[in-house]
């Protein structure tokens, strides 16, 4: 018997649950399907939110030739084979696109799962076919495409973010499983409580269905919070490899670093490694933590985190666990400051409120004579020509002269920064 998640996989757009911002009435992907004008795009979202299912539905609705590759098992040869097949498909459908139909309504669909695992050369092999319209690419990734997809390919694709399923979506899916699946419906499952099953599902449709299947296959016919919790604790493999409690554990990992508890941080690191988490995902989170939580209190933390990322890519696995552990302990034991994080958020809020305030004339470049005549760059003082490489002058727009964005916190490093600025600006009446 097929797994429950496969038996209940939606076949049409009307059966698809969630992602109304993309497939609801008037939404962008629904419009593509209704008009037949499909462009290449990448679906970015957590596991179990419907990326693969949506790609299959699109191909079914548009009746296009559909090819699928996994970045884990496919290489450049497989990509080229699919492109050759797509060219043959195009001949059959439209005489090499020489009829009046646009290419966007004729090209085969190539779905690449886990496209973030494709190497640069593999991604390069797609460019020509996507550019010419030989294939319409649909990629799926759990990782930020900005980091994992090469810019030339990214520029040819839209990126659509899929959200974790909400409580209403999960309850609808559970009801569908209990009533529409022939086998599960025959068991006459009674649902008394849903908090636990929703919590353990974590917005993941596949995980929800896996839990229902696990629990019912164990002979349980009444679902309540205690029963579900006990059953899952006895069967930790109920979760897919992408991470037992993926988001909960990475959250605990970062919060342990932020809370200066190296033992807890190392424990959560070990949990992720044991669950088969992508090491580069962990390394990226360390870089974020170094800038967000440690920041100016210990700028070396950013160097250590970046060195960890670089070393990991060079030495691979399993040795890569060692630099990950080293960086984790270093960050957890470092002094903490989020002053830079708060400063940029404060500045962004001000920009949103005040709009495009003019740059003071003396700070502007004057590459042409006309700009010189208009006063661009006039009276600008070159700081390096003055003692301590500093001279008092206005740098903010007039409307923001008294505004402060950065507030130093209590670490010795930031106190040194504050003392130096106070020394430089002490004779400036505006400070």
Question: What does this protein look like?
Answer:
About 50% of the residues lie in helices and about 5% in strands. It has 21 helices and seven strands. The chain has helices at about 5, 20-25, 30-35, 50-60, 75-95, 120-130, 145-150, 150-155, 165-180, 180-185, 195-200, 205-215, 225-235, 245-260, 260-275, 280-295, 300-315, 320-335, 340-355, 370-375, 410-425, and strands at about 40-45, 65-70, 110-115, 135-140, 160, 190, 220-225. It is globular, with a radius of gyration of 28 Å. Residues about 95-105 and about 235-245 have low confidence and may be disordered.
Looking at this protein, list some descriptive labels.
52% helix
| Beta-strand percent range | 5-15%
- Give, in spatial order, the strands making up the sheet with the most strands: 2-3-4-1-5
Distance between the termini: 74 Å
Low-confidence stretches at least 5 residues in length (pLDDT < 50)? Answer: 95-104, 236-244
Strand segment count: 7
Q: Helicity range of the residues? A: 40-55%
Look at the structure and give the mean pLDDT.
85
Identify the quaternary structure here. single chain
Briefly note the structural class of the backbone. Answer: alpha/beta
Largest sheet: 5 strands, parallel
Tally of alpha and pi helices: 21
Q: Spell the H/E element sequence.
A: HHHEHEHEHEHHEHHEHHEHHHHHHHHH
Shape category: globular
CA radius of gyration: 28 Å
